[in-house]
Amino acid sequence: MKGKKGMSEQTITVTLPNSVYDRIRTTAQATSLTSEEVIKQSVILLLPAFESDISPDSSLGLAKLSLLNDIQLWKTANSFMKNFQQIRLEKLAEIQKHRSLTNNEQFELDNLMEDAQQIILCKAEARRILAQRGHTIFKSIEH
Prior knowledge:
- The structure is a single chain.
- By secondary structure, this protein is an all-alpha fold.
- The protein has 2 domains: 10-47, Arc Repressor Mutant (Orthogonal Bundle), CATH 1.10.1220; 50-132.
- Helix content is 62%, strand content 0%.
- It has helices spanning 18-31, 35-46, 56-64, 70-77, 83-98, 103-132.
- Helix 1 (18-31) packs across helix 2 (35-46), helix 4 (70-77) crosses helix 6 and helix 5 (83-98) crosses helix 6.
- The termini are far apart.
């Protein structure tokens, strides 16, 4: 996330099955990253952000969602990243598989990833508020 300076890091040791290790090594070779960087990026993308990881602007934006009416919340809950942004994000991710990104490309990818995370957070918060207001968010499938 933007604005994080001096983040401390911890080292852990993890035992992985050979098949997973092979996938990490193959990905690292294909992307010109180290195995450690592949694992680190994978974990960062996999785990949800904590409230302390969210920028003040994002926190404010999430807090404002509770002021929206139900129609506006449903729109937010069902929103998507703009098509051109999604295409660019996918293209940069594909490029990264074949070569290292330039500084500008990495900056652009980081910003697009942050935008995608913001959309996901807003969608989740909108659904949480709607559920709190008594709406059914996920319909169960009956056989």
